[in-house]
Design goal:
single chain, 407 residues, alpha+beta, OB fold (Dihydrolipoamide Acetyltransferase, E2P), five-stranded mixed barrel, five-stranded antiparallel beta sheet, 26% helix, elongated
């Protein structure tokens, strides 16, 4: 009797001890794999009970248990304390998700560099994997090297360029994290910024570099030199006016340029600054009043842009084109057409040259009128001596007459 009471007490203590080890729903437990196949994994939980992982809950976001085998220690999240088989229902997927986001949080806080794999692209940026967690790399967060520069900002062409990164790995840093919303934002630009700053520190304003034109846009040309890339604004490409950088440059072309500004990781350069200003000699080559032939480069509502030579361009204002009202300039002139102009003004410092067609048609005195004027002037001068002679003769006759009367 006493022996039975003692055994009951021992069993009760053992039961209470083991019950305290039983997990609750939502807990993460550690167990040992006792069997595993593609459909199910059985896990021993402290020798007290068995847990079951099955279906999509086998997928592990952290990637730690991708090659699971018997004897492995694993972490799993409790979904149910008892399923239809009398086992604890577990999830590696949710435990892995939790663990993955804990790791991401640590990487975010420490601002550590990571490798991300590009798995897809959309118009806004790249879909990436950090381990097995999906994230997003916005276009604006691509490095200078990989930024998709497209003339006119054509979104379909930008997407085509972004798709070329699919399958590649990029260096990045986590810049945004929200586990509840499952949002993970990464930046390649931030990850490469430190290295870029080191590279840029080697240069200063005024340095001349040689590089290769890597992209042409409406606002300028990009040039790669060493491990850097800089912008040559359209106004710094040539002395003459150009509509688009492609008019004078080609992708892949090697050029020299001077660094004119460094702003953080941005470098601005100029080709124009290391070439002679052709306008210095414009006043020697062209004079006010000269009649010249020029080619129509562009037609604007206010006039015509005209090329006199490859370096010197001028403007013929609409008011200097005709005495009559011009309702449509495109009917008056065509791009590429050659016309005669009269130079009205030259300002080499401001790079301005004024032209006129109307001034060519101003009335000039004809040779006939000039000759007539000269003859008239001659006749007038010839008349004066005759009149003087006549006066002298009259006076003489009068004196003679007076002398005769005295006698």
């Amino acid at each position: 009797m006493k022996e039975n009471e003692k055994n009951n007490k021992n069993f009760k203590k053992l039961l209470e001890k083991n019950l305290t080890k039983l997990p609750k729903v939502g807990d993460t437990i550690t167990g040992t794999v006792i069997s595993a196949n593609k459909k199910e994994i059985h896990i021993d939980i402290n020798g007290v009970t068995t847990g079951l992982v099955r279906g999509r809950e086998i997928i592990d976001e952290s990637g730690e248990y991708s090659n699971i085998k018997v004897g492995d220690k694993v972490d799993a999240l409790v979904l149910e304390l008892e399923n239809e088989k009398g086992e604890i229902e577990l999830s590696l997927r949710r435990a892995g998700h939790k663990k993955a986001w804990e790791t991401l949080q640590q990487l975010y806080e420490k601002q550590e560099k990571i490798k991300v794999k590009v798995i897809d692209a959309n118009k806004g940026g790249l879909i990436v994997l950090v381990g097995r967690t999906r994230g997003f790399l916005p276009v604006s967060q691509l490095s200078t090297k990989n930024y998709p520069r497209v003339s006119g900002g054509d979104k379909s062409k930008i997407l085509d360029k972004l798709k070329t990164f699919v399958g590649k790995s990029l260096d990045a840093q986590i810049i945004g994290l929200d586990e509840k919303e499952e949002k993970l934002i990464v930046s390649e630009k931030q990850a490469t910024q430190e290295q870029q700053e080191k590279e840029i520190a080697k240069y200063k304003v005024g340095d001349v570099v040689e590089g290769e034109i890597s992209a042409l846009t409406d606002f300028g040309a990009f040039i790669k030199f060493d491990n850097l890339e800089g912008l040559i604004h359209i106004s710094e490409i040539a002395w003459q006016r150009i509509d688009h950088p492609k008019d004078v440059l080609k992708i892949g072309e090697k050029v020299k340029a001077e660094i004119i500004e460094i702003n953080g990781t941005k470098v601005f350069l100029s080709i124009k600054k290391i070439t002679d200003d052709p306008w210095k000699d414009a006043a020697k080559k062209y004079k006010v009043g000269d009649v010249v032939e020029g080619t129509i480069l562009k037609i604007n509502p206010f006039g015509l842009f005209v090329e006199l030579d490859k370096d010197i361009h001028g403007l013929a204002h609409i008011s200097e084109l005709s005495d009559e009202n011009i309702s449509d300039l495109k009917s008056f002139a065509k791009i590429g057409e050659k016309k005669k102009f009269k130079i009205l003004s030259i300002d080499p410092q401001e790079h301005r040259l004024g032209l006129s067609i109307k001034a060519l048609k101003e009335k000039k005195k004809t040779p006939t009128s000039k000759t007539a004027d000269k003859k008239e002037s001659k006749n007038q001068s010839e008349k004066k001596p005759s009149q003087e002679n006549s006066k002298t003769d009259n006076k003489k006759n009068s004196d003679d007459q007076k002398s005769s009367e005295k006698k």
